[in-house]
Amino acid sequence: MTARRIRDPGLAARPAGVDALSRMSPGCNPSPPRVTTCLIVEPYHVLAERLVRLVLKRPGVAVAVAAGQGAAMAQLRDRRFDVVVVDVDLPRWPHLDSLGSLRAASPASLLVALTSDPEPETIAACREAGADVILSLSTDLPGLADLIACRSPS
Q1: Which of 30, 48, 50, 88 is the most buried (most CB within 10 A)?
Q2: What's the chain's Rg over C-alpha atoms?
Q3: Is 84 within 8 Å of 106 (Cβ atoms)?
Q4: Listing from the earlier edge strand, what are the strands of the sheet with 36-41?
Q5: What domains can you pick out in the chain, each with its CATH number?
Q6: Residues 54, 57, 64, 36: is their CA dihedral positive or negative?
Q7: Inter-CA distances, 26 with 7, 14, 62, 146, Å
Q8: pLDDT tens across 17-26, in order?
Protein backbone atom coordinates (compact mmCIF):
# COMPACT_ATOMS: atom_id res chain seq x y z
CA MET A 1 0.00 0.00 0.00
CA THR A 2 1.39 3.38 -0.92
CA ALA A 3 0.91 6.42 1.26
CA ARG A 4 -1.36 9.07 -0.17
CA ARG A 5 -0.81 12.68 0.56
CA ILE A 6 -4.00 14.33 1.73
CA ARG A 7 -4.32 18.03 1.17
CA ASP A 8 -6.40 20.00 3.63
CA PRO A 9 -7.87 22.98 1.73
CA GLY A 10 -8.36 24.77 5.05
CA LEU A 11 -4.61 24.83 5.66
CA ALA A 12 -3.88 26.63 2.41
CA ALA A 13 -6.50 29.28 3.16
CA ARG A 14 -5.02 30.27 6.52
CA PRO A 15 -2.72 33.28 6.77
CA ALA A 16 1.03 32.67 6.87
CA GLY A 17 1.35 33.87 10.47
CA VAL A 18 -0.73 31.05 11.97
CA ASP A 19 1.26 29.16 14.58
CA ALA A 20 2.48 25.58 14.14
CA LEU A 21 -0.01 24.09 16.59
CA SER A 22 -3.01 25.39 14.67
CA ARG A 23 -1.52 24.04 11.43
CA MET A 24 -1.38 20.62 13.00
CA SER A 25 -4.99 20.94 14.22
CA PRO A 26 -7.12 21.46 11.08
CA GLY A 27 -10.28 22.13 13.11
CA CYS A 28 -8.70 24.97 15.05
CA ASN A 29 -9.71 28.52 14.16
CA PRO A 30 -6.90 30.68 15.53
CA SER A 31 -7.22 34.39 15.88
CA PRO A 32 -5.92 36.30 12.85
CA PRO A 33 -2.19 37.02 12.88
CA ARG A 34 -0.94 40.42 13.93
CA VAL A 35 0.15 42.82 11.21
CA THR A 36 3.88 42.74 10.46
CA THR A 37 5.38 46.18 11.11
CA CYS A 38 8.28 47.44 9.01
CA LEU A 39 10.45 50.54 9.40
CA ILE A 40 12.30 51.66 6.27
CA VAL A 41 15.30 53.94 6.92
CA GLU A 42 15.95 55.73 3.63
CA PRO A 43 16.52 59.48 3.13
CA TYR A 44 16.11 59.45 -0.64
CA HIS A 45 12.42 60.01 -1.31
CA VAL A 46 12.35 58.17 -4.65
CA LEU A 47 13.97 55.01 -3.28
CA ALA A 48 11.91 55.16 -0.06
CA GLU A 49 8.72 55.39 -2.12
CA ARG A 50 9.82 52.45 -4.28
CA LEU A 51 10.58 50.35 -1.19
CA VAL A 52 7.22 51.19 0.39
CA ARG A 53 5.33 50.23 -2.79
CA LEU A 54 7.30 47.00 -2.99
CA VAL A 55 6.66 46.04 0.63
CA LEU A 56 2.98 46.99 0.56
CA LYS A 57 2.35 44.53 -2.29
CA ARG A 58 1.95 41.99 0.49
CA PRO A 59 -1.16 42.10 2.68
CA GLY A 60 -0.73 42.32 6.43
CA VAL A 61 2.24 44.70 6.44
CA ALA A 62 2.29 48.19 7.93
CA VAL A 63 5.17 50.45 6.87
CA ALA A 64 6.74 53.54 8.42
CA VAL A 65 9.58 55.54 6.85
CA ALA A 66 12.42 57.37 8.59
CA ALA A 67 14.64 59.75 6.62
CA GLY A 68 17.74 59.05 8.70
CA GLN A 69 19.21 57.55 11.85
CA GLY A 70 17.80 60.18 14.23
CA ALA A 71 14.26 59.78 12.89
CA ALA A 72 14.62 55.99 12.97
CA MET A 73 15.78 56.03 16.59
CA ALA A 74 12.84 58.26 17.55
CA GLN A 75 10.38 55.86 15.91
CA LEU A 76 12.04 52.87 17.60
CA ARG A 77 11.62 54.59 20.97
CA ASP A 78 7.91 55.07 20.30
CA ARG A 79 6.99 51.65 18.91
CA ARG A 80 8.21 48.17 18.13
CA PHE A 81 8.91 47.00 14.57
CA ASP A 82 9.16 43.42 13.37
CA VAL A 83 11.49 44.39 10.51
CA VAL A 84 13.88 47.34 10.11
CA VAL A 85 15.24 47.93 6.59
CA VAL A 86 18.28 50.22 6.26
CA ASP A 87 20.10 51.52 3.19
CA VAL A 88 23.74 51.27 4.30
CA ASP A 89 25.14 53.10 1.26
CA LEU A 90 24.22 56.54 2.48
CA PRO A 91 26.82 59.29 1.97
CA ARG A 92 27.92 61.20 5.06
CA TRP A 93 26.26 58.62 7.30
CA PRO A 94 28.23 56.18 9.46
CA HIS A 95 26.15 53.21 8.32
CA LEU A 96 27.94 50.53 10.32
CA ASP A 97 27.58 52.56 13.52
CA SER A 98 23.95 53.12 12.60
CA LEU A 99 23.33 49.39 12.20
CA GLY A 100 24.75 48.83 15.66
CA SER A 101 22.58 51.59 17.13
CA LEU A 102 19.45 50.28 15.42
CA ARG A 103 20.24 46.74 16.60
CA ALA A 104 20.67 47.95 20.18
CA ALA A 105 17.42 49.96 20.03
CA SER A 106 15.42 47.08 18.55
CA PRO A 107 17.10 43.77 19.39
CA ALA A 108 14.09 41.61 18.48
CA SER A 109 13.62 43.13 15.00
CA LEU A 110 14.85 41.50 11.82
CA LEU A 111 17.50 44.01 10.71
CA VAL A 112 17.87 44.10 6.91
CA ALA A 113 20.76 46.00 5.31
CA LEU A 114 20.42 47.13 1.69
CA THR A 115 23.65 47.75 -0.21
CA SER A 116 24.78 48.40 -3.76
CA ASP A 117 28.14 46.81 -2.82
CA PRO A 118 27.36 43.18 -1.89
CA GLU A 119 31.03 42.21 -1.72
CA PRO A 120 32.16 39.74 0.97
CA GLU A 121 33.84 42.50 2.98
CA THR A 122 30.67 44.63 3.03
CA ILE A 123 28.52 41.64 3.96
CA ALA A 124 30.88 40.67 6.80
CA ALA A 125 30.99 44.24 8.11
CA CYS A 126 27.17 44.52 8.04
CA ARG A 127 26.78 41.20 9.86
CA GLU A 128 29.33 42.24 12.47
CA ALA A 129 27.43 45.51 12.96
CA GLY A 130 24.20 43.61 13.66
CA ALA A 131 22.43 43.02 10.34
CA ASP A 132 20.51 39.76 10.09
CA VAL A 133 20.07 39.91 6.30
CA ILE A 134 22.03 41.78 3.64
CA LEU A 135 20.34 42.39 0.28
CA SER A 136 21.73 43.86 -2.92
CA LEU A 137 19.91 47.00 -4.06
CA SER A 138 20.47 46.00 -7.68
CA THR A 139 19.36 42.34 -7.60
CA ASP A 140 17.59 41.39 -4.37
CA LEU A 141 14.88 44.04 -3.95
CA PRO A 142 12.08 41.89 -5.40
CA GLY A 143 12.71 39.41 -2.57
CA LEU A 144 12.33 42.07 0.12
CA ALA A 145 8.52 41.87 0.15
CA ASP A 146 8.68 38.08 0.45
CA LEU A 147 11.21 38.32 3.27
CA ILE A 148 9.01 40.74 5.21
CA ALA A 149 5.85 38.74 4.53
CA CYS A 150 7.54 35.60 5.90
CA ARG A 151 8.59 37.34 9.10
CA SER A 152 6.34 36.04 11.88
CA PRO A 153 5.52 38.82 14.31
CA SER A 154 6.46 37.88 17.85
Answers
A1: 88
A2: 18
A3: yes
A4: 61-66, 36-41, 83-87, 110-115, 133-136
A5: 34-41+76-148 (3.40.50.2300)
A6: negative
A7: 11, 10, 29, 25
A8: 333 333 434 4
